[in-house]
Design brief:
Layout lengths: L1 H98 L3 H20 L8 H10 L5 H8 L3 H13 L3 E5 L7 E5 L1 H5 L1 H4 L2 H9 L5 H24 L1
Antiparallel strand pairs: 1-2
Helix pairs in contact: 2-8, 4-5
Length: 241
């Protein structure tokens, strides 16, 4: 009897060992299952992120395309506006030119163009347009007084004084007081002023040829007569004023 009681506990221990192994296997299986789930989750998250990125990029491009569309439509309108304004200017100038057909406007324009033509010829010689008529009168009669020159050139005395100052500075003329009347100042040409006659005396003739080209002899005579009458009328008007 004593022998059988001692062996009973040994059988119980051998029967419990498989149960403990099964319990130990269950946590290991559970751990592997949780690892598989956690490993699968990042992949799914990564797929969702990759799928979501194109949508964000598309959302960003859409506003840029919307902003660019108005700029393209507005650009042609801005460029077309200046072209219309530029086209309107020549038409306005042409209409203004048609209206300026009065005698005073035509004479003024002709005078300005004559001055320009003569000035371009005098410039290379170092002579100003205002000095040229003074030289012409002195070539005809040297030693005129300042007052006589003012009357012949038809400019005011202060303007003549400034013109003679420049000519004296350039050594074209020299001022000399009269021996009989100290109040009078005579203007005499220097050697340099006399030498210019051969080069400059024909310039006014050249300008006349250009201005009167295409006119007959009768037309030129008629024009001179008409301009002389216009000048006398204007001189009478200024003297009455």
């Amino acid at each position: 009897m004593a022998a059988t009681r001692k062996k009973a506990p040994a059988r119980k221990t051998t029967a419990r060992k498989p149960a403990t192994r099964a319990k130990a296997a269950r946590p290991a299986a559970a751990k592997t299952a949780t690892k598989a789930k956690t490993a699968a989750k990042p992949k799914a998250a990564a797929k969702t992120r990759v799928a979501a990125k194109p949508k964000k990029a598309a959302a960003k491009k859409a506003p840029a395309a919307r902003k660019a569309a108005p700029a393209r439509k507005a650009a042609p309108a801005r460029k077309a506006a200046p072209a219309r304004k530029a086209a309107a200017k020549p038409a306005a100038r042409a209409s203004a030119a048609k209206k300026d057909t009065s005698a005073s406007n035509m004479v003024t324009l002709a005078s300005r163009l004559l001055v320009r033509s003569l000035s371009t010829r005098l410039g290379p010689k170092g002579i100003g347009y205002g000095q040229y008529p003074v030289l012409m009168h002195l070539w005809q009669e040297d030693g005129l007084t300042q007052k006589e020159l003012s009357n012949r050139v038809r400019i005011e005395a202060p303007t003549m004084v400034r013109t003679l100052d420049r000519m004296e500075r350039d050594k074209l003329v020299a001022r000399k007081r009269s021996d009989t009347d100290r109040r009078q100042i005579h203007i005499r040409l220097t050697a340099k002023g006399k030498a210019l006659e051969s080069d400059l005396s024909s310039l006014s003739t050249d300008v006349d040829k250009v201005a009167l080209s295409g006119l007959s002899k009768k037309d030129k005579e008629q024009l001179q007569a008409l301009m002389g009458k216009v000048i006398r009328n204007l001189e009478g008007d200024s003297s009455d004023a």
